[in-house]
Amino acid sequence: xxxxxxxxxxxxxxxxxxxxxxxxxxxxxxxxxxxxxxxxxxxxxxxxxxxxxxxxxxxxxxxxxxxxxxxxxxxxxxxxxxxxxxxxxxxxxxxxxxxxxxxxxxxxxxxxxxxxxxxxxxxxxxxxxxxxxxxxxxxxxxxxxxxxxxxxxxxxxxxxxxxxxxxxxxxxxxxxxxxxxxxxxxxxxxxxxxxxxxxxxxxxxxxxxxxxxxxxxxxxxxxxxxxxxxxxxxxxxxxxxxxxxxxxxxxxxxxxxxxxxxxxxxxxxxxxxxxxxxxxxxxxxxxxxxxxxxxxxxxxxxxxxxxxxxxxxxxxxxxxxxxxxxxxxxxxxxxxxxxxxxxxxxxxxxxxxxxxxxxxxxxxxxxxxxxxxxxxxxxxxxxxxxxxxxxxxxxxxxxxxxxxxxxxxxxxxxxxxxxxxxxxxxxxxxxxxxxxxxxxxxxxxxxxxxxxxxxxxxxxxxxxxxxxxxxxxxxxxxxxxxxxxxxxxxxxxxxxxxxxxxxxxxxxxxxxxxxxxxxxxxxxxxxxxxxx
Length: 532
Prior knowledge:
The protein is mostly helical. The protein has 22 helices and three strands. Helices cover 65% and strands 3% of the residues.
């Protein structure tokens, strides 16, 4: 309401843009606040029970204060988990508790992420990573050996007396909710559940889409905007996705007709040795190939590639870049999860997504530009997954073309064609999953409808269909965040081409996109149309 008292016409162009972004974002947040129990902080794939330990393990120690802050955070995990359980209890009382199949997965994580056995042996990753970070500070002379030993003892004590019991209590609390909620839902009919908002009965007890909750379609549309930054209607989005789907299909057909042996090559393992083996070589190659089409970020940010520690592998993404602090954009880390063993082309495109020209490059470039131009810090409050993940996917697809060129230069034309085909099959798959997200959460499609759609594409194993359906039902808007963001960037690029005409270049477009920082796409388009 205080924002509404400001007249944007009396602001400078830059402040007017900040005003517009904040207004749209806060307005949407207010709309989402009308649905207090539709969010799921403990989702099986990305809930706090698995995310928090990863963040703690990667918490950077630069000063003594960092260590005391870290230990203070550990000491509060029991209160934090108790508040999450209280929220789940309130959700259950209102009829919105997660289905048993999801709750069981979360409980299993709670029971295995921090165990008394591992803590007793001193082998838990929150013990080993703490000791490694501390020994670095001891080498720098910040701590004496005695102080280090005392801090390790404090960490061990907090893990055993606060963190592990917090996980056990959360698991126990979810179990009792599961039993009481299941007893409730078996006592009443599915239709009554749907009417009251109980989200427990579906095919084989699988989760259901948001559309089946009271006014769930409205909630989903607001969630879609907050995650993707796209203001298009659901109908427009479906249309946009179907058009792209056909483009990808015809690109695949064209490639297959040019080289009939391609499909065979694609299904064979290791058809070619990728010219680059090490992540560091790949990152250097990506930086060299992006040089002419992306603005220079100087000095070149350094990056260390690390493996995710084995005990964290089951809970980590295949790869991730941890955003650096605003004041330290020179030292960056990309983590590779070796459990998924990405190598060759897959590792190359993953490093493009996470590193150059993806998340790392975008974050560092944007932070430096904001700092140089003294951009209002309020802009950092705005977040749209589509702006960030859309970019990472956009450059990931570009990197398949880089890889194809690299393979041709290495005398492997067949492998280059396989890389091009992989690009379109990946895009097709993500397009399909995004359409399924809109079907499940926007239209209320159940498992049978989704299995039917997947069957048309040759995915007919019940186990696979169930896994795809369950993941999308448990993680609303995850695929759209990436793929709709990507398609919005392509649309914005088309607008830039037609508006700038001969003055268009990829370099100019990428510079424009990166310099604005996180924005919703219609605001970006309006801003682009105001440029000469």
